[in-house]
Amino acid sequence: MPGISTLLVNPPGITQHRQNLFELHTKFSLSSRDHATIWPYMSNVWSFKNKNLPTATAPYTDHHYHCRLRRAPDVPKALRARINNRNVNGRKHEVTKCNCTMKVREYVDGRREYIAISGFLHTHDLDYSDLDKINEVVKQAV
């Protein structure tokens, strides 16, 4: 429609990339550039857990993530999270605890592989994650 502009121009194929990064049915790779473009769209799904640094026998870095809905349903955020910001009561969610975990293996050439490591599927769909939390791209656009 003429006269209507959007605040956000999504990269081509973002819907399929988001679905692949959510489901993780197969291991797949993205370039460093594609990762930088696509990963912010997943900030509402995956939460950083820890990182394993490269070694002589493993010349790559593993970044471990778990689903943001990992905590049990209706359990408020930890007390330490509420102490720093007294106005935060803790968000609650209605679905069952999601034990889905994954790792992003980053090679020295910048290529990244996305690998499911938990053996569990998400207990919710991608739309629920979008309703529960806003991703970084949308936050920056607003």
Q: Largest sheet, if any?
A: 5 strands, antiparallel
SSE series:
HEHEEHEEHH
Principal-axis shape: globular
Low-confidence stretches: 1-5
Strand order of the largest sheet: 1-5-4-3-2
**Which percent range fits the helix content?**
25-40%
Query: What amount of the residues lies in strands?
Result: 15-25%
How many domains make up the coordinates? 1
How is this structure best described in words?
With 142 residues, the protein is an alpha+beta fold. It has one domain (30-141). It is 25% helix and 21% strand. The chain has helices at residues 14-23, 32-38, 79-84, 126-132, 136-141, and strands at residues 28-30, 46-52, 60-67, 101-107, 112-116. A hairpin with a 4-residue loop joins strand 4 and strand 5. It is globular, with a radius of gyration of 17 Å. The two termini are 22 Å apart.
Q: Key features?
A:
alpha+beta; disordered N terminus; 25% helix; 5-stranded antiparallel sheet; globular; 142 residues
What topology does this entry show?
Layout: H1 14-23, E1 28-30, H2 32-38, E2 46-52, E3 60-67, H3 79-84, E4 101-107, E5 112-116, H4 126-132, H5 136-141
Antiparallel strand pairs: 1-5, 2-3, 3-4, 4-5
Brief write-up:
The protein is of the alpha+beta class and 142 residues long.
